[in-house]
Amino acid sequence: MITTDPIGDWTWEIASSGDGATAAGAAETAVSIWGILAKHELAVPAGEASISVRSVNDMRNVHLDMSGLILEADPLRPGTAVSGAVEQAGTLKGDLLVSLRIRCPGIWLESGVKHRAEQLFAIQVDVWKSSLTVVTLETYSDAWLTMDTREREQAAVHAENAPRLTAALVEVSALLGSNPEPGDPNRHATPTEAGFEDPRTEGPAYSDSWGTFEIAARSRRLRSGLPPAEDEYPETTDSPVRYFAIQRETQTLGYVWASVNNDAAGYEPRTAAGDAAFKAGTQWLLLLRNAHNQGLTPLKALEWLTRVPPRPEIGSIDEDAPEESPSLDDLEDLSGRY
């Protein structure tokens, strides 16, 4: 399953000597780690970077904040967006926190088939007052676990993917000259220096952690971009659901659905599609509100959506007839897995 919050993380701390840590050094470290992930297809083009500079004594004092920087093949060569941002950060003086973050699309495997997630890993490099560099690597997939976050054993998936993560962690540690400090156990998994503990040994921390926490987190994220509404379709149902995939070019962004019992309708973001799934989803939910205001039942609303004038930026319904899922839970599972 793909999550919006990390499954686990690892941290390395590096005390600086000589001239101290710099923004340029932070960028070189982050890009080198990206290269290690890319070697194992844990990162693939094109990543996206952000950089910020804040006063250590007052984090509200932001000197620089740049996001959406495309990570090109050679991101630190002169003239690239990343190198320009790093150069600006390097001109700033004082007791500063320089933070560089790379969001890494990557590949996870199942039965030899490659599946892409738009945020499989994230790399964060923080430089504190030019004296301490803290590197954090986060992952947003449970492909490294012997049981997925819905408590299903996945020995074959683990065998295909966990060695790639372990190899990358070893190489990052060699690059940085120290072993990582695994992140704390969380509601999904327990990180170790080499990957993750086997949840089959003592059982997972929570029953169906993905269904328990991730569905609610996705709903909050979707609705944070919506204006308040007095009345709309309920977003939960116990009945089977009919749904259309929302396509944008070759990518599935999510699924708009209505219950067979005509008592609910909604949108499930395909988590692996990343930010685009949520940005499009708010617009599809607004369209469902429009249908509700017209007095359409959920199933009629689903039919009405197929006749809405196309808007390429939010994707489109390309199917002639909806698919049917035995439950909303099954559709949610599809949206979080593939």
Automatic annotation (TrEMBL):
Biased composition annotated in UniProt, kind: Acidic residues: 316-338
Ranges where the record places region Disordered: 177-203, 311-338
Protein name: Uncharacterized protein
Lineage, opening ranks: Bacteria, Bacillati, Actinomycetota, Actinomycetes, Kitasatosporales
